[in-house]
Amino acid sequence: RMLDLYALAGASFVIIDMEHATITLSEIDALCETAINAGLAPLVRGASDDRQALLRCLDAGAAGIVIPD
After folding, report:
1. According to the model, what pLDDT value does residue 1 have?
2. What is the pLDDT of residues 10-69, one digit of tens each?
3. How far apart are CA 53 and CA 45, in angstroms?
4. Nearest to 42 by CA among 23, 52, 51
5. Rounded to the nearest 5 degrees, what angle is found at the Cα of 25, between the Cα atoms of 38 and 68?
6. CB 62 within 8 Å of CB 32
7. CA 28 to chain centre
């Protein structure tokens, strides 16, 4: 898996970009779980600065939030 290779290369986190990709909140949970299982901290770049949507990303397992723009 690609994320396993990033972890082996020494990466400590991965950014899941919702601003420039068509990733939905329902997919964030699986992506965060995959990153965590690979030993990476998942950071989510939100599609907007909507507080509730960003909090749902944290609920889904994001280790942190990258504010868009």
Report:
1. 75
2. 999 999 999 999 998 889 999 999 999 999 999 999 998 899 999 999 999 999 999 988
3. 11
4. 23
5. 90
6. yes
7. 6
